[in-house]
Amino acid sequence: MPAVHRVPPELSSFVGRATELAAIGDAVAAGRVLTLTGPGGCGKTRLAIRVCQAAAQAWPDGVFWVGLEEETDGGQVARRVAAALDLPLPSGPDPLPALVAALRDRELLVVVDNCEHVLDDAAKVVAAVLSQCPRVAVLATSRARLGVAGERVWPVPPMGLADALELFLERVRAGAPDAAGGSEVRSGARRICDRLDRLPLALELAAGWAGTLSPAQIADSLSAPLDLLDGGARTAPFRQRTLQGSMDWSHDLLDDDERVLFRRIGVFEPGFTADAVTRLAALGGPGRERLLRGLRGLIDKSLVVADTTGEVARYRMLGVVRAYALARLEEAREADAARDLHLEVYASLLERLAPLLDTDKDAWRARLGAAYPNVRAAIEWGLSRADPARGRRLAAACAWLWHLEGRGADGARLLRKAVARGADERGPLQAEVLAALALVLNTAEPGIEAFEVARTARAMAEETGAPAAGRLARSLDAIGRLAVGLPEALEEARAVRGEAVAAGDGFVADSAEAFIGLMHVLADDYRQAIGCLEHAVEGLLRRGDRGTGSFALGWLALAAARSGALRRAGEAAERAVTTAEPLRDLHWTGSARVILAEIRLLQGRPEEAAAALAPIDRLIAGSGPLPFITGWERCKALLALEHGRPEEAADWCRHEGRWQEKPSTEWLAPETQLVLATALREAGDHTAAARVLRALSDAPVTGQMPRIRAGVLDELALHAADIEQALRLHHEALRIRTDHDLVLGQVDGLEHLAAVNLRRGAAETAGILAGAAERARADLGAARRVTVTNAEWRARLEEPDLRDAVARGRAMDLATAVGYATRARGPRRRPESGWESLTPAERSVARLAAEGLSNPEIATRLFVGRGTVKTHLAHVYAKLQVANRTELARAAIALGADGDPDAPRG
């Protein structure tokens, strides 16, 4: 019966590795050698023991274990194999031919353990056996490959996290039963597993401290793992009694060039390249060719792990191996020089990549992202030096990565440090660092600080001659001016765009154009918004400016939706999501998904809206403090309202203000305040709703946002006790929406008027308006927004006396229905001439013209086209019977003196 011979006993339980065991067992084959490689302590020997136990029945002549750990004479390897197989060999200088002859007709598995220190002789024996013994299989373990023909190498990976946790906790229970239990223990154990790269030997050694320290204390002590992790089992080979001993064993096997390279690449974080390695030649010693050969040797000896799956091969050291290398670097007194060179390597990388920022940001992100751990380490080192200029310059150059990807907190920390290191300096570099900080804060930490930093950066850039930093800072400052008002922000954005176009600064020009488009969205001038945003998107996406590009697409979607083009809006919103997703950042992807969800709600597809938010909701649920995602809280509130949960909706709205030092509903976005007022009304808290509406009505920005102004009027109407007052307010809201082509808002207005007419007994008018709204929603693909319960609404519309009226309404297009609603209000009471004959829009134009503003200035102030201003002025001249601006000003002054509160004052 097949047997397993001389396999070392397992003195502790074997944990995990089920996948590896299955794969290794399948790979062991007659006539072949499989070599398990990896650093000391990764578990090669334990895996081989388990394979032996599982494979016994597969080999008729048995499984034999050959341990070479104590062998110091390579010439004795063949005799060691023969002894393990109980084969007598003749005396003489070369026993190998006799060994091969003895095995030629046998069918067995030979396991040769720990070959690295007698590698050449072990390889010679294995090659000879396999060449002449076709039914013999060899399983070898070694820190380096054997290098024989047909060898299959199996790098043993670190344990999976679940297996590593189980191993550590099992060993803790074995040595200190009272120490293994509870969430705090598991939390500390997980930190230990992460810090020790889940290497079995390191975990076993760490577990030996459980009777002295808690897992959390062990984890805190592992900044120097080679010092802490000693005291292994006395029965273990010396090299496995301490992690230091295991690393010494590997280090002693290196040649001179490999030892020099080994300690110097300790400065590299995971992900370094062969090009970076060859730059170490500047430190003296081995040249480029010898360094590359040394790198290959370190990979073969399992001290460096190679990843060759990408376009460029990248390398890393396991953490405990790197700690040993850094200790050797300190001993050689080369650490500062190596870190300085490391800084130069990655500063030059960013310099080489810089042109891609203007042509292909996707490629720039991919290449810099792969090198980011080393770039971050280089920045940290540079900022710690007596002269931090190189570190500060590198930090500023890295800003776009922090801005675009989910590393904003890291970037803000490093850039604040870079600003502090240059606090006494007023020069171009400090301006660049400040502008970089403003850029990162703009998405990482919303609030006033980003705009204050931008203004400081702009002033310093203008003073010291840093035009590129100045333009970037000015574009960010323009966003901050939204807090002052739309006209001010629009004026600044247009100035920034002009300056950037003149300088050939594509990103700033296009982002300013996109911001101008946003201003028109907020001002509900959708035709101009769509034109600006389409132009901006083209330039932004051509360069790979995915962040601002996805924002612009989202704003384009909103403009299209609110002007009635819901299908086009959905396409733009979906494109915004696909544009943002490669950034793998909650801010950009989340903001795009919020707009997609909002469009789906407008389309009456709440399930799809929730599905659009679901990936972000899942990520946020496990992210600790909630990140900043534009509009996320408001969209969650809208979903809650959709499902009849107004109290929850109100809570979501209030949560948007968590970024403020003293949260207040007045600091919420106007759109969110309006949703909050609706939620409070539906929850029955009319007093709180009225308070929000008063504050929103008094806010200067509301007067510049027709859609919000109309929404406030509708909400006030829904609070009004007097039906006629509610009717007047709804009509005024509809007029505002009609004047500004707010198509979806017009449909909302028809439904509000249908509901209030139903209340006041005007059933025919209510039915016509309800039918027209239903037709408009069907034509637009929009959701129903009735203001009475759906059941009541449907029931009333089916009553015989309303069916004909509803059918007549369904025959109307939207423009006809709006005209009908206006006529149904009653006879026109506005006189044919004089100041009172002017429409509200004409009064606004007349006031500004009387104050001396030009047509372009009036267009900017009122967010309308210049042609619209010209048309309004023609009407004003005719109604007031004046010929020009001078006469208009005189008439206005005289009218003001007579007591008209709306007339301009002299």
Automatic annotation (TrEMBL):
Q: Listed GO molecular functions?
A: DNA binding
Q: Where is the HTH luxR-type domain?
A: 831-896
The Gene Ontology biological process terms listed for this entry are: regulation of DNA-templated transcription
**UniProt keyword terms in alphabetical order:** DNA-binding
Q: Which PROSITE patterns match?
A: HTH_LUXR_1, HTH_LUXR_2
Show the InterPro entries listed in the entry: AAA+_ATPase, HTH_77, P-loop_NTPase, Sig_transdc_resp-reg_C-effctor, TPR-like_helical_dom_sf, Tscrpt_reg_LuxR_C, WH-like_DNA-bd_sf
Record flagged with keyword DNA-binding = yes
CDD domains with a match to the protein in the record? LuxR_C_like (cd06170)
Please give the name of this protein.
Answer: Putative ATPase/DNA-binding CsgD family transcriptional regulator
